[in-house]
Design brief:
The structure holds 2 protein chains of 2 kinds. By secondary structure, chain A is an all-alpha fold. Chain A is about 65% helix and about 0% strand. Chain A is built from 8 helices and no strands. Chain B is α+β, with helices and mostly antiparallel strands. Helix content of chain B is about 60%, strand content about 15%. In chain B, strands 1-2 form a two-stranded antiparallel sheet. The longest helix of chain B is centred in the middle third of the chain and has 19 residues. In chain B, about 0% of the residues are buried. Classes of the chains: A mainly alpha, B alpha+beta.
Chain lengths: ~210, ~55
């Protein structure tokens, strides 16, 4: 027995397909052409941030397989730990330069407020991921940092839920919750960029009103 | 072996390590360079035309 065309159109599969395929305009998922004003180095730093994030996650996965203390006893583990650290440094440097560029472009113009907001939330979640990374080094540095951080965390009333002196809790936040949050928000951010397009320069007379 | 603490620069209530200050200055320099250095767009187009021929 087959479903009628009406029943087929009401199926959740069709609804999800239509929703996903309508997220970005046709041809804009991976465009091979961009407006002329995008030919500037300042537009490179968003993609550089994404590239660094890929290296951060990849090196983090390798570190997770070795365990929290692996990098103390293995030269390869130490190397992977350094790759993780420096890719995070590049990630934040590229993201902040991307932020500066977008701020001075007023990149929230043209109905791009949600794109700007998801970038801000992604930045904040990334800071949380980085700070918990400091806490799971399993050395005296992480012990000192957690001892200093607990007063700040307790002063804002969340110490009962987020105990920086608990390395196990911080490790799980660092390798699960925060990367998932950063990943989801980053995907939303990229989809919104593709949905609304790259913001035109402030002095571009062809600037659209709203999409 | 005891390593000396990093060099810090103090300006009123602001205290920043020389290393962090140099990183921030370096980021500002990269930002300015990204604005002024031309992007090699024409070179890419010429290369595409070569492929087309």
């Amino acid at each position: 027995m087959s479903a009628s065309p009406e029943e087929h159109d009401r199926s959740w599969t069709v609804a999800v397909r239509n929703r996903v395929s309508g997220l970005v305009p046709p041809g804009q998922v991976l465009p091979d052409q961009q407006p002329a004003y995008v030919a500037s180095w300042i537009y490179v730093f968003g993609v550089a941030t994404l590239a660094a994030l890929v290296v951060v996650v990849g090196s983090g996965v390798v570190l997770a397989m070795g365990g929290a203390a692996w990098w103390h006893t293995s030269s390869f583990g130490h190397f992977v730990n350094s790759v993780h650290l420096w890719s995070v440094e590049l990630f934040f440097a590229a993201m902040v330069i991307h932020l500066w560029g977008k701020f001075w472009m007023a990149a929230w113009r043209g109905n791009r407020g949600l794109t700007w907001a998801t970038g801000v939330v992604s930045f904040v979640a990334s800071i949380g991921a980085a700070f918990t990374g400091y806490l799971v080094q399993s050395n005296f540095d992480s012990q000192w940092i957690s001892g200093e951080a607990k007063d700040g965390i307790n002063s804002i009333g969340i110490g009962g839920f987020f105990n920086v002196l608990n390395p196990g809790q911080m490790l799980l936040w660092h390798v699960t919750l925060l990367p998932v949050a950063v990943g989801i928000i980053t995907v939303m951010h990229v989809v919104l960029v593709r949905r609304h397009g790259v913001v035109p320069p402030l002095d571009d007379e062809r600037e659209e009103v709203a999409r | 072996m005891v390593w000396a603490a990093g060099r810090y620069i103090d300006w009123g209530v602001v205290s920043i390590s020389l290393t962090n200050l140099l990183v921030i200055v370096g980021m500002i320099v990269i930002f300015v360079l990204a604005l002024v250095i031309p992007f090699p767009r024409e070179h890419v187009r010429e290369h595409e035309h070569e492929d087309d021929s």
